[in-house]
Amino acid sequence: MSRHGGTRVGSGRSKLSPEIKKKSYKVYMNIETSQQIELFGVGESFSSKVIDLVQSEIKNRSHIKEMRFIDLFAGIGGFRIALEEFGHKCVFSSEMDKYCQKVYEDNFKDTPSGDITQISENSIPDFDILTAGFPCQPFSYAGRQEGFNDKTRGTLFFDVLRIIKAKRPKMFLLENVKGLKSHNNGETMDIILSSLKELGYDVHWKILDSHKFGVPQKRERWYCVGFDKKVDFKFPIQTNPNTTLKDIVDVEAKHPDLELSEFEKSRIQHHFSSSEIRVPHDNSMYAPNTKKGKHGVFSFLKSDKTLRFHIGDAAKTQIQEAYYCSLDSVAPAIIAAREPKLWDISRRLSVDECRKLQGFPDKFIFNVSNLQAKKQLGNSVAVPVIREIVRNMLYYYK
Ligand SMILES: C[S@@+](CC[C@H](N)C(=O)[O-])C[C@H]1O[C@@H](n2cnc3c(N)ncnc32)[C@H](O)[C@@H]1O
């Protein structure tokens, strides 16, 4: 029998199933940690000692598994995606916009209840975690007010408060625009924090930028977490600021609906055909009595590769009139009815690209108009930021 070529029956290793097949991982650790693994791990090899320790710690943390949560001002369920990833169960949701309800139902097979102001806290099932990206509204400071709680009456935040007060969840996660911090000279935020503390919660807040969580969108938002006991909570560390729109834009995608108008294209072309840094545009293009007609428009390519149009003279250009990003830049925060536009590929972003900007999964479906889908994504949370905050909430709530 020849010893070369061919495959002998019964030779070689049989294929292992993916569940038991082992993969190698490179892990960096200091000497002290490796000594501790040798000391505390059970097993014959270093590798089996590491696996033993990791698995026992996973078991240790299993108390955080399968918590019940409620999704208030649910929109299209950005919070829900992140919490379900960790194995938690949504037991109640509320959203009153019918288009959001439809997208929510299509994706989660669950229809949210409507107007939260009409829902009694007693009819909500018990839960451990509350999430809410509540609309920011001014509080009334007039009249006789007993406590912080009373100052919020009549606002949608009051509904968040009354539910927390009645149901006493272990923790909550709130989200709002960055401007909440300075709204009404900081008084709005003070009332929010004080009223949550008045209910006995340990409260922490921070402004975080989505771009530092892996999506090419500068979206700074106010996040607030609270616990029913003292928790040494830390917000996730912001890293990963290297993504740009190139990472999510499909440059091959073309659709007439996405194209910029001829007027926009000609203004962009005018900018790049000039050698000036701050390029003046033709005032006669604009009605003389408008701000543009009176003061003129200037365009300027910033070092972050975004092209900005301003109204004013060359030196005094404080009114921003148009904003175009590019494949090498980051998108500004997407908001309802304003999707980012790119000057270098002369188009606006598609629904799918806006979905990626918010870190929603590929399988997420939008059976509504593109206009509705973009509005919903503009109002939603960036899932990667929520995922990291939730991870820390579960970790620090021992
Ligand atoms: C900022 S969005 C929150 C989006 C959500 N976090 C997401 O990830 O999609 C606020 C939502 O609250 C909803 N809303 C406003 N008032 C409401 C009310 N009284 N009851 C229920 N939902 C309400 C709006 O329709 C809107 O979708």
Main traits of this protein?
alpha/beta, Rossmann fold
Gist of the model:
This protein is of the alpha/beta class.
Report on this model:
- The protein contains twelve helices and 14 strands.
- It is α/β, with parallel strands linked by helices and 398 residues long.
- It has three domains: 31-61, no CATH class; 65-241 and 381-396, Rossmann fold (3-Layer(aba) Sandwich); 245-364, no CATH class.
- Strand 9 (297-301) and strand 10 (307-311) form a beta hairpin.
- The radius of gyration is 27 Å and the shape is globular.
- The termini are far apart.
- The mean pLDDT is 90.
- Residues 73-76, 78-79, 94-97, 100, 115-117, 133, 135, 156, 379-381 line the site of S-adenosylmethionine (SAM).
Uncertain spans? none
Distance between the termini: 66 Å
Radius of gyration: 27 Å
Number of domains: 3
CATH structural fold name of the largest domain? Rossmann fold
Number of helices: 12
**How confident overall, as mean pLDDT?**
90
Described by the principal axes of the CA atoms, the overall outline is: globular
Give the oligomeric state.
Answer: single chain
Query: What share of the residues does DSSP label as strand, in percent?
Result: 15-25%
CATH architecture of the largest domain: 3-Layer(aba) Sandwich
Compute the number of strand runs. Answer: 14
The H-level CATH homologous superfamily of the largest domain, spelled out, is: Vaccinia Virus protein VP39
The hetero molecules present are:
S-adenosylmethionine
**CATH uppermost class of the largest domain:** Alpha Beta
Major beta sheet, specifics? Answer: 6 strands, mixed
- Secondary structure class reads alpha/beta
Helix content: 25-40%
List SSEs in N-to-C order: HHEHEHEHHEHEEEHEHEEEEEEHHH
Largest sheet, spatial ordering of strands: 2-1-3-4-7-5
